[in-house]
Amino acid sequence: MVVHSAELVLAGLDPEQRAAVTAPAGPVCILAGAGTGKTRAVTSRIAHRALTGEISPRHVLAVTFTARAAAEMRARLTVLGVSGVQARTFHAAALRQVRYFAPRLLEGRAMPELLDSKVRVVTLAAAKVGLRADRAAARDLAGEIEWAKSSLVEPGEYVVAAAKALRETPYEPAKVAEVFAAYERLKRSNGVIDFEDMLRAAVWGIEEHRDVAEQVRGQYRHFVVDEYQDVNPLQQRLLDAWLGGRDDLTVVGDASQTIYSFTGATSSYLVDFPRRHRGATVVRLVRDYRSTPQVVGLANAVISQARGAEARLRLELHGQRPPGPEPELRIFTDEPAEANAVAARCRTLVDGGTPAKEIAVLFRTNAQSEAYEKALTEAGVPYVVQGAERFFERVEVRQAMVALRAATRSIPGETPLPTAVVEALAAVGWAPDAPPPGGAARERWEALAALVQLAEEYAATPEVLPIGEAAAVERPVTLSDFNEELARRAAQQHVPTVDGVTLASLHSAKGLEWDAVFLVGLSEGTLPTTYARTPEQVEEERRLLYVGITRARQWLWLSYASARSPGGRARRPSRFLPQLDRSGGGERAGGGVPKRTAARRPATQIVSCRICGATLLAGPDRKLGRCPTCPSDIDQDLYERLRDWRARVAGAQKVPAYVVFTDATLTALAERRPGRTEELIAIAGIGPRKLGLYGEAVLALVDGAAVDDIAPEKSFEISS
Length: 720
Description:
By secondary structure, the chain is of the alpha/beta class. It is about 45% helix and about 10% strand. It has 29 helices and 21 strands. β2, α4 (about 65-80) and β3 (about 85-90) form a beta-alpha-beta unit. Residues about 465-475, about 580-605 and about 715-720 have low confidence and may be disordered.
């Protein structure tokens, strides 16, 4: 249905969304928390202004960061009855303008060819200054060049700028600057430009050519920028050029989702928006329509501890969905046990009717995916890898497998398997010391380190060979055995799938959502990563966890392993997890129990206040399901009937009343009024035994039964 009515556009909006939509012309900052309907708010604002005649759609430029988001914005505007709005990414908008004005700006010459990737030219530039950069090193150098150009840093300024920004450079900063300068020279000599050049060309065309500026500003008079916390200095420079001193600008962002600062993105423009634009209207969207109150409560608890500039704009979300299951916090003895338990639960969810495509397993680094690819494969659960190749399809892993096969001819057969693997990987430049600087190089190192870990685990399970009928002998596994095992795993994981469980890094999960989310590997050194050394970097790691939590609609699992591999060095849980009792054990692979417990204990659950969403730590508060300061919605009549019934049961059983149920449990029952067995057992203090003894009677009382209708002798007979 197409709307075509300004009043209908406002229908169904919450008060905050309505305030954003109807804000007066001029600078407007919409602080939109995860799941709060920011796309609906911003498209409704455009549509409402257009349908009331305040603006013309063809004069609107809405800028997003992904083509998918731009397409969604255009589709929603069409449904709202508005067409003609230009919704594009920064790069697409700049490219369109540069192409249009190229004959005028370049004196009749065609626009230079646009590089799809910098890596090839960067590799040549590195060679020009005496560096032999492999693909990973070239990717890291390209990343540094992109950061510099996005930050408006020239080659001669790079060394100082990198030092100020505390950049972790792949080579000495002076050498990176040399590569940067050589890269720029090579581009010019080859007549090509990169994406940053294109943005700069759009800026130059407007700033230095009055006729171009007049035409662009005459066309675009009203601007909307989505994900404003991810804008970099070059993009802001282009936005300022488009505006030309005008102030009809609406920005949408969430400082708590700032996770791309390593690329040059900065939330400072969002944080400082009211200062840069005097008289700006600021609207906060805090009603979360995506996640259950339980998930929202955990997200609030995690981000409430944030510090730094972004924390000034922290939003406390309020869940709008019906209550759901509490997030689960699981602890495992090692990473294989964690992966196997995740795969088993995915299998259960899929068998129970949850579509595989509505499940995601999220981790900090892509190198962590291998364990989950293996576990899901063995559990028969289809999966897809988001934003990266499958583990055995990665270039560095394929090269390593070739080197491992070749090493069987040169490494003695009696060499212990882990040692043999380390020696073989030396042929592809891997060494078991600290990983190299640079994100791509480090990711390559971690992928090969995962192969070494696989070798250690595989070596711990020697093959048992039968000898006669009464004896057997253990044969240590060899490099040839390990190569066969890798080939088997690769063959299993190469089965194509259409829909499956999503495996993704936290960065690549941004902007997506699923019914069920597993956040795994939440230990110190992984999240936050050991490479987060400054307070600002640590806070960005906290925001990564926050982004991961807010991807879940209904069901959320958080887990970590006490050790990386069986018997390995102990690790601590992530500092970002709520400080709850973590004694509850997780499952071990094969149905065993954690080392420190003789019997399986229930998993620790994170309990959130059902009213305000805060994480509850105290026992009585967890039982009530609300903060002591939050208003009680107790059914007083039900509470009195429960007290009378408890007194009769206690008298019949000749036990104190609190043995049946404590006052806190009665209060929780009268407040929460459970209507089903599942809701009843969710109340702390009601376990399987008390459910069997009193569950039927309690549910009857909640349903309105009189105390006289329930015989206490039945409970007495059961307990005796």
